[in-house]
Write a structure and sequence with these properties.
Elements (H helix, E strand, L loop, with lengths): L1 H23 L36 H8 L9 H13 L8 H16 L7 E7 H4 L11 H11 L8 E9 L6 E7 L8 H18 L7 E7 L7 H9 L2 H5 L1 E7 L7 E9 L8 E2 L2 H17 L3 E3 L7 H5 L5 E11 L2 E3 L10 H7 L3 H17 L7
Parallel strand pairs: 3-4, 3-5, 5-9, 6-8
Antiparallel strand pairs: 1-2, 2-4, 6-7, 6-9, 9-10
Helix pairs in contact: 3-7, 7-13, 10-13
Length: 383
C-alpha cells in the first residue's frame, strides 16, 4: 500500500510540474510584442500537453480544451466564459493592423478547425489599410475618423502590418437566405475581455453548438477586424458582397460588450428608406424578434430590456436597409438609461470584471448563448 501511495504521489507531482510548465510558457503579452521580427513564424504554436490518461502529441492546447468542451455535455455559456478568459489572458492588445490582431485571427481560425469545421468553410478575408482608409470618416464626421486612427496606430509606430483581416465561417442551411452573425475581435491596447472577447466567445460557442443542428438559414459568422478604427472590417466585408448576397440577407445579429454590467439589453429594427421617416423603425421581422425575446424570457427566467440604436457593427447594415438585432450586457444608470464600466481601459480584463461583478460573466454568457442559439435555429422568413 505504501508503494502504491508513493507511486501515486510521484505521478501527481509529475503531472503538476507539466501543468505549471505549460502555464509558465504560455504566450503572455508584453509591450514590445507587436514589433515586427523578420522571418518570424506568426502562426500559432501552442504547447502540447497531456490529457488525463497521459496521452500527448495529438493536438495543441486549444485542441485539447475544445475536445473537453462538448456542447452536449456543458451548460450554455460555459464554453463562452472559457473563451473570454482565455482571450483576455493570452491575447490582449489586439490592436488593428498589428501582429497581435493577426495572431488573434489565426487563433480563431484554429479554434474553428478544432471544432470540426472544414477549411473550405473558413475564409481569412484580408484587406490593406489603403482599401479601407476611405471609410475612416464614414461614421465619424469631418476628420475625426482619421484622428482616431492616427491616435490609435500612433502608439504602435514600427509594429503595424499593412493589412488587417476578418475571419468568416459559413454554415450552409436549407436555404440561401442568410443570417449574418458578427462580433469584432480587435481591441484597444488592453485585455479587451468585455470589448470584445465576450462577443467573439459567444460566436465561437454558438458555432460549435449549431454545427450538428438542423437550421433553415445559411449562417455566416463574421469575426470583424479593425472595428476600433471605425468599423473598418465590417465596412470592407459588406462592400465585398455581391448584390445577390446582399439581397439574401434576412437578418444581421451582432454581439458586443456583453459583460459591462449585469443588465441584459438588446435593440432590433431597421432604418426605413421612406422619405420623411427618420430613426430606427419596426418591420415584420423586428416585431417577431421582440415577441421571440419575450417568449424566451418566460421560458428561461431572464429579463432583457429593449433599448435604442447602438454604436456597433450593426450600423453598417442598418445604413443599407437591413434588419438588425444587437445585444449588450450593460449596467442600468437610471430607469431609462444604461452605461458601460470597463471598455477601453485597463479594467477590461476577465479577472477585474469577475471580481467587480461576481457571477455576472457566467450569467450573461449563459443568457446570450441560449438566446442566440434559439434565434439561429428559427426560420425568420415565415410570415
Amino acid at each position: 500500500m505504501r508503494i502504491r501511495v508513493k507511486a501515486f504521489m510521484v505521478i501527481a507531482a509529475t503531472l503538476m510540474a507539466l501543468i505549471i510548465t505549460a502555464c509558465a510558457t504560455r504566450i503572455i503579452y508584453t509591450p514590445d510584442y507587436d514589433y515586427y521580427i523578420p522571418d518570424r513564424d506568426y502562426s500559432i504554436n501552442y504547447n502540447y500537453i497531456t490529457d488525463d490518461d497521459g496521452n500527448d502529441g495529438n493536438g495543441s492546447e486549444t485542441d485539447y480544451f475544445i475536445s473537453l468542451l462538448k456542447p452536449t455535455h456543458t451548460p450554455h455559456g460555459y464554453i463562452g466564459r472559457f473563451f473570454v478568459q482565455y482571450i483576455s489572458n493570452n491575447l490582449p492588445g489586439r490592436v488593428a493592423f498589428t501582429y497581435r490582431e493577426y495572431e488573434a485571427a489565426l487563433w480563431i481560425e484554429q479554434v474553428l478547425l478544432a471544432m470540426g469545421f472544414n477549411g473550405s468553410q473558413i475564409t481569412l478575408q484580408s484587406f490593406f489599410y489603403s482599401d479601407v482608409e476611405a471609410f475612416l470618416n464614414y461614421f465619424s464626421p469631418g476628420r475625426q475618423g482619421v484622428l482616431n486612427a492616427a491616435n490609435l496606430l500612433g502608439r504602435y509606430a514600427g509594429n503595424q502590418r499593412y493589412y488587417s483581416q476578418n475571419v468568416i465561417l459559413t454554415i450552409p442551411g436549407q436555404s440561401e437566405s442568410t443570417i449574418i452573425v458578427g462580433a469584432h475581435y480587435d481591441s484597444f491596447r488592453y485585455a479587451g475581455a468585455s470589448d470584445n472577447a465576450s462577443g467573439t466567445a459567444l460566436l465561437l460557442e454558438a458555432a460549435q453548438r449549431i454545427q450538428e443542428q438542423e437550421h433553415y438559414h445559411t449562417l455566416i459568422f463574421v469575426f470583424f477586424g479593425s472595428h476600433e478604427l471605425g468599423l473598418l472590417g465590417t465596412l470592407y466585408f459588406y462592400e465585398s458582397l455581391s448584390e445577390e448576397e446582399r439581397g439574401n440577407i434576412e437578418l444581421m445579429i451582432v454581439a458586443d460588450v456583453l459583460i459591462e454590467g449585469p443588465d441584459l439589453t438588446f435593440v432590433t429594427g431597421y432604418i426605413s428608406s421612406t422619405p420623411g421617416v427618420m430613426g430606427l423603425g419596426s418591420n415584420t421581422t423586428s416585431i417577431r424578434m421582440v415577441n421571440h425575446v419575450r417568449s424566451f424570457e418566460q421560458e428561461h427566467d431572464f429579463i432583457l430590456t429593449q433599448t435604442t440604436m447602438g454604436t456597433s457593427d450593426e450600423r453598417v447594415f442598418l445604413a443599407r436597409g437591413h434588419t438588425i438585432f444587437a445585444m449588450w450586457g450593460l449596467e442600468r444608470r437610471s430607469p431609462v438609461s444604461f452605461g458601460t464600466n470597463f471598455l477601453h481601459s485597463h479594467r477590461d480584463s476577465y479577472e477585474y470584471i469577475s471580481n467587480r461583478f461576481p457571477g455576472m460573466v457566467e450569467q450573461n454568457m449563459r443568457a446570450f448563448s441560449l438566446l442566440l442559439e434559439s434565434m439561429l435555429l428559427r426560420n425568420w422568413t415565415v410570415r
